[in-house]
Structures are given as structure tokens and as C-alpha cells.
TrEMBL record:
It holds the Pfam family Mac. InterPro entries: Hexapep (IPR001451), Hexapep_transf_CS (IPR018357), LacA-like (IPR039369), Mac_dom (IPR024688), Trimer_LpxA-like_sf (IPR011004). Transmembrane segments: none annotated. This is Acetyltransferase. Its EC number is 2.3.1.-. Residues 5-59 form the Maltose/galactoside acetyltransferase domain. The lineage of its organism: Bacteria, Pseudomonadati, Bacteroidota, Sphingobacteriia, Sphingobacteriales. Keywords: Acyltransferase, Repeat, Transferase. One of its GO terms (molecular function) is galactoside O-acetyltransferase activity.
Length: 196
């Protein structure tokens, strides 16, 4: 018989209120309490806490506190990852960030979801779908990324977007729901004052 954790990470319906998952969430909260309350100068100590919590990290990463997640063990950071203040990751399913990813402030990634019908929802059932963010993606502030979404490499997600479906590589996408606005071109190469 599968445990609730096994069901959760395999995308099957599960009840998150059992002891195993509760204890794992509590462990993450304890680690993040320490992380979010360390002095700003304690960068190495903060990163060590995340290395112990996450499934995998690159050698260079920085997450501005405060930061929140459910479990931590489903999160993989690529090399040279940066996230601004108030990143929230509900990582009931795997969340994978590629290399050179840039995250604006107040971004939320939600792998967990609930049934549409009220009866199973009230009964406490959940399910989760993974999120994948490609290499060199920039996600603007106040963006929400929903369960099961993949964002292709080099793509820019405009601030305030709600991403409900996959977004391809090499595009600028914005809005609620998030839609492709245009492709990224050579005209965007200018480091300052490039096209928006």
C-alpha cells in the first residue's frame, strides 16, 4: 500500500493530513523559521539550511528572505539561481528550476490542487502536478504559476501574470491567463533600454 507521500509525489489523489506529511511540513517550517530569521550577513548559514532542505541545488544560488515552501525535498535549483523577496513554493510535486533563473518578488508556484467538486474537496483530498522552469527564464514579480506548468528556456514572464498552461521557449508572455505576446529577438539584446 502506498504512503500519502508516495501518492503525493506520483500525482495521485492523497489526503495531506496524515502524520507523515504533517511532520515533514513541520520540519520544513522549522528550517525556514531559522532561515528567515538569520542576520542578513549569514548568507552561508542560510544557504546551508536550504541545501539540507532541498532535493538539489547548484553551487551558486540566492533566495532573499522571507521564503516559504511546504516540504523542500521536491525542489531542485539549477546553477546561478536568484529569487527576490517572498518566494512561495507549494512543492507537493517536484519543482525544477534550470540554470540562470531569475525570480522577481512575491512570486508563487503551486503544485498542489484540489478537486472541483465540493464533496471530495471538503473531505480533504488533494493532488499535485510538477512545475518545470527552463534555463535562463525570468519570472516577473507577483506572478502565479499553477500546477503542471512548464516554461521553456529563455522565456520572460511579465509581472502579475497567472500562468495556467505551458509557455514555450524564447518568448515574452504576460497576462491573466498568461499568453505569448511575442518572440524574443536580436533587438532585445541591448543590455539597457531594450524592447519591452
Amino acid at each position: 500500500m502506498k504512503s500519502d507521500k508516495e501518492k503525493m509525489t506520483m500525482g495521485e489523489p492523497y489526503i495531506p493530513m496524515g502524520r507523515e506529511l504533517f511532520d515533514q511540513r513541520q520540519h520544513a517550517k522549522e528550517q525556514l523559521f531559522l532561515y528567515n530569521n538569520l542576520a542578513p550577513s549569514k548568507i552561508k548559514a542560510r544557504n546551508q539550511l536550504l541545501k539540507g532542505l532541498f532535493k538539489e541545488t547548484g553551487s551558486r544560488f540566492f533566495i532573499e528572505p522571507p521564503f516559504r515552501c511546504d516540504y523542500g525535498y521536491n525542489i531542485r535549483l539549477g546553477e546561478n539561481f536568484y529569487a527576490n523577496y517572498n518566494l512561495t513554493i507549494l512543492d507537493s510535486a517536484p519543482v525544477h528550476f534550470g540554470d540562470d533563473v531569475l525570480i522577481g518578488p512575491n512570486v508563487s508556484l503551486f503544485t498542489a490542487s484540489h478537486p472541483i467538486h465540493p464533496e471530495p474537496r471538503v473531505a480533504g483530498w488533494e493532488f499535485a502536478k510538477p512545475i518545470t522552469i527552463g534555463d535562463r527564464v525570468w519570472i516577473g514579480g507577483h506572478t502565479v504559476i499553477n500546477p503542471g506548468v512548464t516554461i521553456g528556456e529563455n522565456t520572460v514572464i511579465g509581472a502579475g501574470s497567472v500562468v495556467t498552461k505551458d509557455i514555450p521557449a524564447n518568448v515574452v508572455a504576460v497576462g491573466n491567463p498568461c499568453r505569448v505576446l511575442r518572440e524574443i529577438t536580436e533587438a532585445d539584446r541591448a543590455p539597457v533600454g531594450g524592447q519591452q
